[in-house]
Amino acid sequence: MSEIDWHPPIEPYTSGMLAVGDGDEIYWEECGNPEGKPAVFLHGGPGGGLLPDSRRFFDPSGYRVVLFDQRNCGRSLPPAGDPKVSLENNTTPHLVADIERLRERLGIERWLVFGGSWGSTLGLAYAQAHPERVTELVLRGIWLVRPSDEAWGFTPAGAAHLFPAEWAAFRAAIPASEQDDLVAAYGRRITDPDPSVHIPAARAWMAWELSANTLLPVAPPDLEDATVLAFARITHHYISNGGFLPPEGLLAGVDRVRHIPAVIVNGRYDVKTPPDQAWDLHQAWPEAEFHIVEDAGHGGSEPGIRRLLVEATDRFLRPSARPASAE
């Protein structure tokens, strides 16, 4: 393994587009060992798309790794960066169905499911819908998308206390008369057909999202307008609809997956998805291995988080491996 606690960079050995209905196509790729243990990587956001380093959580000699861009983001089509593209058929049930279509398309019987942030949400939703298809779960930065979790991120009572300047900039992009509901106000602007309205709003939305992503500040990525708009549109779409989850939420369905070996990892200073969400999931699922990383925030690439995730996938390559509680 490399000196930075994850596996070396690797390129896909095959890729393609999969029609998933409703006029949508998702980009998918495979890397690693075609004869290896199947695993699927679920990216965050929602709307974040794949990054090359997403492949590096898996030992390429032992895993057949499947990665894909979720509907309307990354290389999937049509792109949400086009404001005329409808997101009506971009919901959690649609994404769960897309994962199943991809599994069937690739001829995979069962696979390890790996997801961080929104990927942890989608991974739990998929596993609860199709527990017979999941060998293990590796989940990072747990996001349950409950009303209290949303209030933490988008009201003055939450993360704003820790990032006051960034919160002030986020609020300043909206007139004072509309600041009582920032999510709704941003929604009106992000969905406005005029680029002079939706691009500044999308960039302000993404700036707030990225401000609390890691324990130590990192330079924001230089992204094209279309990429920023796709992220902002899709993320807002899910946040304003409760993640398209059932009213009882994901914790109510944990009994359907408690038999599946699982690892839960969260940064102590994760301001995006604070560790109470991971803790609540672990309380409902005590059999799952549970880790709080004392020197980390939200980012999956932060060293302590990265190391635990790679250790988990390496361990699950051994058929007899089972997590041990690590509270």
Query: How far is it from the N-terminal to the C-terminal residue, by CA?
Result: 26 Å
CATH superfamily membership of the largest domain, which one?
A: Alpha/Beta hydrolase fold, catalytic domain
Count of helical regions: 9
Kindly report the spatial arrangement of strands forming the biggest sheet: 1-2-4-3-5-6-7-8
Shape: globular
Calculate Rg over CA atoms: 19 Å
What is the correct CATH architecture of the largest domain?
3-Layer(aba) Sandwich
CATH level-3 fold name of the largest domain? Rossmann fold
State the name of the first-level CATH class of the largest domain: Alpha Beta
Q: What is the typical, i.e. mean, pLDDT?
A: 95
How many DSSP-defined strands? Answer: 8
Approximate helicity band = 25-40%
Structural class: alpha/beta
Describe this structure in words.
There is one protein chain. This protein has an eight-stranded mixed beta sheet with strand order 1-2-4-3-5-6-7-8, sandwiched between helices. It folds into two domains: 206 residues, Alpha/Beta hydrolase fold, catalytic domain (Rossmann fold, 3-Layer(aba) Sandwich), CATH 3.40.50.1820; 93 residues, no CATH class. It is built from nine helices and eight strands. It is an alpha/beta fold.
In a nutshell, what does this entry contain?
The longest helix has 17 residues, at 195-211. This protein is of the alpha/beta class and 327 residues long.
Which keywords apply here?
327 residues; alpha/beta; 2 domains; eight-stranded mixed sheet; 9 helices; 33% helix; globular
